[in-house]
Specification:
Number of strands: 5
Shape: globular
Strand order of the largest sheet: 4-3-5
Radius of gyration: 29 Å
Distance between the termini: 33 Å
Helix content: over 70%
Strand content: under 5%
Structural class: mainly alpha
Length: 663
């Protein structure tokens, strides 16, 4: 068992009578020119200073998480095998392909070995580039091979520094999104500070470095920033085209680096669909975003050798259904309130029905079953009947797939983030409801009364509002997905605290509004909040950075060394998914199963291998193991005598339920 222990060691006058008047005009024109020049100069200075602060905070975040990683593991001092063991479960599996590409005789041979891989799953040849999202490892390994850095930087450091560098991109993207929404870079500064001080709930990059979300979320944040800019009014055509290109590139990179991309983008598509139904977003831009999502995903599908899970994704079915439904219902946004409501309900039903029909047709035509375990899990999780399915129960029993723990809100409240988030969410949600009613009614009287709320809820703010609500619901239901919400929570809370429009609405509601008072509050409260955060959390951060620990897992080190020394290179190993990923990385031996679970045949294979922990006869177990070419079995006492899960959720209990040994 791994432990972290304390480290040891801008005319001339012609008539006199006109002179005073002309002097006055000259002075007036000069003042206008001076004001214009001064305002432009202030904008340039603000943009420059804000940009410098953004880059500085991004780099500081990278250094911060890199230092934490070094201090926790003493990574620079431990052996190579210990470094590799520190990449736990699926992290080790992904990193193994980077290592494999580095060690290949040539790039071509490395790529060939990935396309025709027979060591990840015994007695079976699979295409790693089709099955897994490892193009980032391929790209990074090629980059390492062609750059003249081999004698200065070890491959593992090139890898982890790239991931820590992406954290800088992540923080800068959050900073820019908040700045775009509020109009002041002070908001971006606050968002970045919240991201850092709530690190436990905003990222886990320092201890799960190769995890797919650590590659994908920075690109997702860049995409959200680009969409926020795209939804602003009065953009020039050239600006709009460039922004659409940025959205496409970010969408593509996000989709390429994470197997769960389609589910996250489906929620994002809903965040576009809902406000668009209520005329809060420009329809033409939303249409482009739907098309970009589809095209980005299809491009990834091509690169992944037409991965069936992508072709059968709900995102493609949903976006296609929205575009088809729009073509059918051309007068969707015309008529009185009741007429609009009826059309809207019909539109939603049409979209949902088409989505299910299109998706079912695609899956039936292509015989797709890659993601069926996810829907079984969701069905059981939300109470649509108990299940004996092993895969669904395996997810249900994992804490990461359970409800978001209440202590999360306690930690977020310590930095004032959660309180200010709710404070920002309430007026924005009220404004959204009023604007939705105003847009549906079409009444001039209602339009005039709701004008103030329309000023507050601009298209970019409307999108981010629905985005944070939907991803909040996702995080509340599944703890592992909280990182998609908490980072955007930092953006939304800082936007609400620094927004002129939000403060104007609040002050008008309590009859205290003046322009000067609004400006004072807009800047003073965020500054006070920043001072509070600095005062309360700076000492803790310094203490955290000064605490030195050391990686310590002698049992696993001994196991890996024994395997390398005492077994042939062609040996096949069976065991738990988590440990076998480490076996592949550290020893290069062939596996029977592994943690990348998005394949039906692998799930069935894993269930069969796990029969070593079930109530099965030795003969049955031997026959199963030999059918997969197994030479060695690794039994873990942490599974045999499992205490991490309660009774009914232990691995042997799940197997007994699935096998029918327990009713």
């Amino acid at each position: 068992m791994t432990t972290i222990r304390q480290r040891r060691g801008g005319k001339v006058t012609e008539a006199a009578e006109h002179q005073p008047s002309e002097e006055k005009n000259v002075k007036s024109d000069g003042k206008v020119l001076s004001d214009h020049t001064g305002g432009k100069l202030r904008n340039i200075l603000s943009l420059t200073l804000g940009g410098i602060v953004a880059i500085g905070l991004g780099l500081l975040t990278s250094v911060y998480v890199a230092t934490l990683h070094e201090n926790d593991l003493w990574f620079s001092n431990i052996k190579e095998v210990e470094r590799e063991i520190s990449f736990r479960t699926e992290c080790g599996l992904y990193y193994s392909y980077y290592k494999q590409m580095i060690q290949a005789a040539s790039i071509q041979q490395g790529l060939h070995a990935l396309v025709y891989d027979n060591k990840t799953e015994s007695v079976r040849t699979i295409n790693i580039l089709e099955r897994m999202n490892v193009y980032q490892e391929v790209f990074l390994s090629i980059l390492y091979r062609i750059l003249p850095i081999q004698q200065y930087l070890e491959p593992v450091y090139f890898y982890i520094y790239t991931l820590f560098g992406l954290q800088a991109v992540y923080v800068i993207a959050l900073y820019v999104t908040s700045w775009l929404l509020s109009g002041t870079w002070l908001s971006g500064l606050l968002a970045a500070c919240w991201y850092i001080t709530n690190r436990i709930d905003t990222t886990r990059v320092e201890f799960t470095i190769p995890l797919r979300e650590n590659w994908a979320l920075p690109f997702f944040a860049v995409q959200i920033a680009a969409i926020t800019y795209l939804l602003r009014t009065h953009l020039q055509p050239a600006q709009e085209r460039l922004t659409l290109l940025a959205v496409f590139i970010a969408t593509f990179l996000f989709s390429l680096t994470w197997q769960f991309n389609q589910f996250m983008m489906l929620i994002q598509a809903l965040a576009l669909f809902i406000p668009d139904c209520f005329d809060m977003l420009p329809t033409a831009k939303v249409t482009w975003l739907y098309i970009i999502q589809i095209s980005g995903l299809l491009l990834v599908c091509v690169l992944q050798f037409f991965n069936s899970m992508i072709l059968g994704s709900l995102l493609i079915s949903f976006n296609a259904s929205v575009l088809i439904a729009r073509a059918i219902q051309k007068n969707l946004k015309k008529g009185n309130l009741l007429n609009r409501l009826g059309k809207l309900i019909l539109h939603v039903l049409l979209v949902l029905s088409l989505t299910l029909l299109v998706n079912k047709f695609i899956k039936k035509s292509l015989n797709l079953e890659s993601d069926e375990h996810i829907f079984k899990f969701l069905k059981a999780k939300f109470g649509f009947g108990a299940t004996r399915d092993f895969d669904a129960n395996l997810y249900l029993c994992e804490e990461a797939f359970g409800l978001l723990p209440l202590n999360t809100f306690s930690r977020l409240s310590d930095t004032l983030l959660f309180y200010i988030y709710i404070f920002s969410l309430f007026p924005m949600t009220a404004a959204a409801l009023i604007v939705a009613f105003r847009n549906l009614s079409g009444s001039n009287q209602v339009q005039e009364k709701a004008e103030e709320y329309t000023i507050i809820l601009k298209p970019d703010a409307a999108y981010n509002l629905i985005h944070t609500v939907l991803f909040g619901c996702l995080a509340l239901s599944t703890m592992r997905m909280k990182y998609l919400w908490t980072s955007h929570m930092c953006v939304f809370a800082s936007f609400g605290l620094c927004s002129t429009e939000v403060w104007r609405l609040i002050l008008k509601c309590v009859h205290l509004y003046t322009s000067q008072r609004t400006q004072v509050i807009k800047y003073s409260i965020p500054i006070i909040t920043l001072l509070y955060i600095s005062y309360k959390f700076w000492p803790g951060i310094m203490d955290e950075l000064s605490e030195l620990r050391e990686f310590y897992d002698p049992d696993t080190v001994e196991l890996m060394n024994w395997i390398k020394s005492n077994t042939p290179n062609t040996a096949v190993f069976a065991g738990s998914m988590q440990l076998l990923a480490g076996v592949k990385l550290c020893t290069g031996r062939t596996l029977t199963n592994h943690p990348h679970y998005e394949d039906k045949h692998l799930r069935e294979r894993t269930k069969q291998i796990y029969q070593i922990y079930a109530k099965r006869s030795p003969e049955d177990v031997y026959r199963i193991l030999r059918s997969f070419g197994t030479d060695y079995v690794i039994l873990e006492d942490s599974i045999c005598y499992e205490r991490r899960h309660s009774r009914g959720c232990r691995l042997r209990d799940l197997l007994d339920i699935a096998n029918g040994h327990v009713q």
